[in-house]
Amino acid sequence: MTDKNTLTDKIITEVTLECLMNKENYEKYRLKTCEKRGAINKKDKKFYRKRIYDVTKKLLNPELYPNEKMNITTDLQYKFETYISSCIEYFKMLDTSDILQEDYKDFLEIDEKNEIMIDENATIDNADQLMMRSIKIQEPNSLEKFVKRKIMKPLRKEIPPQQKDVNLKDPVLKNKGIRKKKNITNTYDKPTNEKK
Q1: What is the pLDDT at residue 196?
Q2: Where are the domains of the chain?
Q3: Residue 11, SS3 per DSSP
Q4: Segment Disordered: which positions (predicted)?
Q5: Ranges of residues in the chain whose predicted pLDDT is under 70
Q6: How many CB atoms are closer than 10 A to CB 95?
C-alpha cells in the first residue's frame, strides 16, 4: 500500500507544480528532474536484469503461470501495455516499409559503394541537353505577328496511385530479425514440407 501512496503523492505533486508554478521555473525544475529520472543506473540494471526478464515473461504469458500471484501495480501494468503496443506498431511499420520497398528494389542499380550506375554512352553533351532546354527563335511571318495562337496541350490522363494490400499476419514476419540461438534447434528453422 505504501508504494501506491507514494505513486499517487508523486503524481499529485507533479500536477500541483505544473499548474501552480511559474512556467520558466517549472521548465527549469522539469529539466533537472528529467535528467535524474531518465538516467538508469547501470549497476541497478545489471542487478535487476533477471527479475525484469521474469516479470516480462509473466506479463506476456500469464496463462503459463496460473499458480503464481502477480503483485504488480496498475502503473507498471499500464506502462507494460503501452510498451507492448508501441513495439507492435513499430514492427508493423517496419514490415510495411520492407514489403513496399521490395517493389522498388530494382528501380536503381546501386553498387556496394552506394554509387549509382550510369550508362557509359552518356556524355557531357547529352547530359547538358537533358538538363537545359534549347530555345529556337524563329522570325514569324507578317500574318503571324497579328494572330495570337494558343497551343492547347492534350489533357494527360492522370493515373491515381494504387493502394497495395500488405499482409502483416504473414508467418514469415513473426520471427523476422530474431537471432537464432546456437544451442537450441528451433522449430521455425526447419522447412514445413519435410515429412518423415
Answers
A1: 44
A2: 1-39
A3: helix
A4: 158-196
A5: 1-4, 34-39, 107-123, 125, 138-144, 185-196
A6: 19
- As a whole number of Å, the end-to-end CA separation of the chain is 58
Residue 116's beta-bridge partner residues?
Answer: 110
Separation between Cα atoms, residue 85 and residue 77, nearest integer Å: 12
| Structure-block grid coordinates of residue 147 | 494572330
Q: How far apart are CA 95 and CA 168, in angstroms?
A: 7
CA distance 169 to 173: 7
Residue position matching grid coordinates 496498475: 74
Distance of CA 189 to the CA centre of its chain: 27
Q: Helix and strand tally (H, E) in the chain?
A: 8, 0
Cα–Cα distance, 126 to 142 (Å, whole number):
36
Q: How high is the pLDDT of residue 46? A: 86
The amino acid occupying position 65 is Y
Alpha-carbon span 196 to 192, nearest angstrom: 11
